[in-house]
Design a protein that fits this description.
The complex is a heterodimer. By secondary structure, chain A is an alpha+beta fold. Chain A is built from 23 helices and 18 strands. In chain A, strand 5 (about 325-335) and strand 6 form a beta hairpin. In chain A, helix 14 packs antiparallel against helix 15. The relative contact order of chain A is 0.11. The radius of gyration of chain B is 17 Å and the shape is globular. The termini of chain B are far apart. The chains are: A alpha+beta, B mainly alpha. Chains A and B meet through helix 1, helix 3, helix 4, helix 5 and helix 8 of A and helix 1, helix 2, helix 6, helix 7 and helix 9 of B.
Amino acid sequence: MKAHDKKFDPDDPRLTAFALGELEGDERADVERLIASDPRAATFVDEMRTTAGVVEREFAAEVVSASGPIGSSHTIPLSHRTVSARRRRRVLQAAGLTAVLAGAGFLLQRTVVDLNKTATSALDTPVRSRDDFTASAPKSAQVDGRPASNAVVPAAASIPVAATPPEWKREAIDNNAPVEESELVVNEGAQAAGTAIGVGVSGSPHPYSSRMMAGRGAAAPRVAQPSAGVVYDNGEVRATEGMAFERAADKVSNTEGYNAIVENAFKLAAQDPLSTFSIDVDTASYANVRRFLNDGALPPVDAVRVEELINYFRYAYPAPQGDAPFSTTATVASCPWAPAHKLVQVGLRARDIDMTKRLPSNLVFLLDVSGSMNDPDKLPLLKRSMRLLVNELDGRDKIAIVVYAGASGLALPSTSCNSKAVIEHAIEALQSQGSTNGAAGIQLAYDIAAKNRISEGQNRVILCTDGDFNVGVTDQGSLVKLIEEKRQSGVFLSVLGFGKGNTKDSTMEMLADKGNGNYAYIDTINEARKVLVSEMGGTLFTVAKDVKIQVEFNPTRVQAWRLIGYENRQLAHQDFNDDKKDAGDIGAGHNVTAFYEVVPVGVKADVPSVDPLKYQQPTAKTSAAYTDELLTLKLRYKAPEGDTSQLISTPVADSGVSWSEAPSDFRFAASVAAFGMVMRKSANVGSFGLQNVVDLAVPEVGDDVAGYRREFVALVRKAQAIEGKPKVR
Amino acid sequence: MNDPAWIDAALRRWETPLVLYATKVCGDAERARDAVQETFLELCAADRAAVEPRLAAWLFSVCRNKALDMRRKDSKMNTGDEVLTERSGQEPDPSVALLEEEQQVRVLTLVERLPAKQQEVLRLKFQGGLSYKEIAAVTGDSVGNVGFLLHVALRALRERLSVKGEVA
């Protein structure tokens, strides 16, 4: 691949370099462009990364063989061994290092171990290759009556996993200094000596942890046998995650659940001057729509939430001033699908967080590892997504992993993100199996989050599921209650949806909503990157909560109005000032955009009216009604830890801006809104069709560094192709 | 004489990867350990300020030279390439779903079938955690060549590890 050649070439070493994070600058940008434009390249890079992961993992698990080279077919004579050992000791003494090394218990001590082995097992069985080890490691959860007392590695309470290591391995463990800490043991030193190390949590101690719990180098328990229904060996996961990434488009079944959306209708400003709704920063619907279109089908209308489509994109709203958590912008211009009407764009931009100054995070991933998560676009994608996030975190942050399936269990106790290797191992060892029972899982996740609570930081449970959130004996209601309760204790909930064919969209959105979190649907690794990495601030760091918008229209200017989208975010008008009423939260870096379609006074509008009232007259207008103000925009929000809301109130005038004079972002956002309405088969968009959307969107693609807007245009064209008959007004 | 705690930490972190790597270079685990030992002795006397920022690369570089010396000194030893290629191990029956431990053997077996040069860069990259540039400094290849070797090696592994038709 030459610098400007955009064709995918599997012979190009830069693809590997990119997969390994070795590319920078232009070369990296080139490959990123290629990946965005060619799914084969994306798949190839993913597979190379997966392969690299497999190799890295196997290398990490490799141990120094007790006798001879690894997998060797020849042994070194004992005499040589002894001489070598003696010579080694002399070298050490000569260097005056004896004290150092003996204290550390490493080289010198292992020499002794070597000699012991030579005298016992190695002599009896000269060839101790990996194959021997495999054959001699029984698959049982017993410890062979030989507890390695000085290498206590407690496994997670509900996951007693153990395996009997071969003779020499146990000796090696017996002969090495124990590595023990009370809460968290992440000592890489033990690796060097081949000691099984692990992460200590309360629960019955086990001499050997599963490999997932142990750090690198703890290869002894290669064979792990589940006793609580949670399997932590890797063969099967690797099989699905590894290289077979076929998309099973034919697997789409009809169990996806979407709540019906009744589109907001026009209302007369004279009779209904108020519009009240909660903000919504979710973007899951866009990814879901994209999934349908990429699979060659139009999305069901109720899967299209227009506001989530619009909010998928970033718009250049001004940064908030001073300590304000967000800025507000209102823009008025003419409406592309009804030129006599006006579009009012309300934009919120949350504060960005300087990642070097960000708050620490205490994250507990609650992972669905039920059988239904086995598809390549579920658990394997989730694992890759988590790796992306872990890479962004550091020693300030803690991650824990709780899994739920037939039983729930702790796959990774809360671990500092300095210990990336430990976390990676835990992620790698995840495997899907069994049916779903979320009740115990979510309780455990919340318990861990509470136990590791960071008072000056973000505490969050991140539920990752394909939607089968079975709460066991308890009902949905008590689950919601639990989530709300925990929210008050400062532990929030975010939901990441995976997979298709089983996506209970409405449940997941509702759960995230109750937990002060957001809901995102992850369909590709690019989406994971967007949600977890690019917008990590947004996904994880709330800058304001319970953000409500109320707009009062001026009936002398506005005849009728309609809110586009946000159908399931409507609030009662009196709830606007009621701080007990929950609403949407806004996270760092988030954009929120809402459009009103407004019919100005004097324009013919087909809006049903009611009869004039018999007993009262319309109230008199205030003097403000006779200004050029179109509406007043009011916002209420609370600080993330606050209970009392603050009010922002801004009048908005119509300065008569035409479509062509409108800001580019306004026009792009409007084109996305139009697309959503077309996909929803909305009557409000009239004869406006997909070709019109393309015509609106293409000139506004702009710089589009990340390629999201270009992808949007491509998606609209895909929808056109599926429709088969491009509509032109 | 450098701070024992620092040497100790380096030992803890790098001893095993170095021994594994040196074993491949000199073809003998015992000599590999000697090479690693001498490497750490050299570290004790090294200029810490100069070494610390690129500790891994330094260790692998020194260790490689020591291991190569050992190999040269011992005329009985095989050449590295022969040592690296003679252990082909047994092919698991592809018709049987692989158990995890078998798969680990298989991955390493596949690695061991690659040309010695590719194995070396794989180890430096994934066991040593070195960057392309650091690997190039250790092996004396160009950065581009390192990238090419890793690409070819990973691509071969990707194809050979491909589980299609082998595992349900």
